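SEQUENCE WITH STRUCTURE:
===
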Amino acid sequence: MISAIKEITGRIAPPDDQAAARAVLRLNSLTKPPGSLGRLEALAVRLAGISGTEQPSYGKRTVVVMAADHGVCTEGVSAFPQEVTVQMAYNFLSGGAAVNVLARQGGANVQFVDIGINAELEHPDLINRKVRRGTDNMAVGPAMSREEAAQAILVGVDVAREAVKSGTEIFITGEMGIGNTTASAAVLCALEGISPEAAAGRGTGIDNERLRHKIEVVARALRVNAPDPSDPIDVLSKVGGLEIAGLAGLILGAAAARVPVILDGFISGAAALVAKALAPESVNYMIASHVSDERGHKLMLDKLGLEALLDLGLRLGEGTGGALCLHLIEAVSRVMTEMATFESAGVSGAEGK
């Protein structure tokens, strides 16, 4: 399985610099002062490099929601019981979750992947790729085996590959799993040397006392397992989650196919850190949708070298922030394909520019 992961990371190529340069020329030829669309112009150039064309557009858009349970929930780190994961799973599958609503508005479809829910689900729209029924309690030992972590990464790679074959042109990362902000905080600490106090946040809305307990649980998990920061699969297996591993694989699979990935929030950020550790060039294919209200997410984005497009105080996850950013992606595409140039409109350009 490790060789399969190395094979996919070896296929991640740099962005197309020539397409990015053509995008700059086109932006400067449009009927507007140079740079006047601000960060939308930088986004247009990035998307051009990713997609290999100065006028990128994205028809089929797919939100991939990876879902899994976490054994660390037995430590009382969440405001919600673990049973909520499977209950919410059916809400996603019936189209009633927040990300379903926002994806419909943004013209995207939602794929729901059971990669590690601690129950057996049945639904015609379910993608059942369960690696195991939840992780073990990372506060007392490894969350899963190294082989299971690698298998979960490859599930994400396969989901990306199959979606691209079916026409997906842009991905949004989403997730569901009670307890996954605790695992994500531990991944951030292990990979980047961040303290538990700086990494762990309120998740589903815990109070100060439970937050202090959550910080202690993350610290204990790191102490008990001693994850190797130079080995991202070791980190995943010891203090990670199945959905985090799956999303890391999704990012790698998308990057290998030259398809952009819009990152959602804190859990997606943990997956992105793993993907970066496995293949640093994969960051070139990531777009940060928003900065979460979850403590530690801004630190993740700093480590990834990414600047979020939105800051709305979101902390829901699911892919909601990523789905909202589809409107900015659409705006950029329309500017690059529909806006007149100075020449086509017969408008005089700025002199000396």
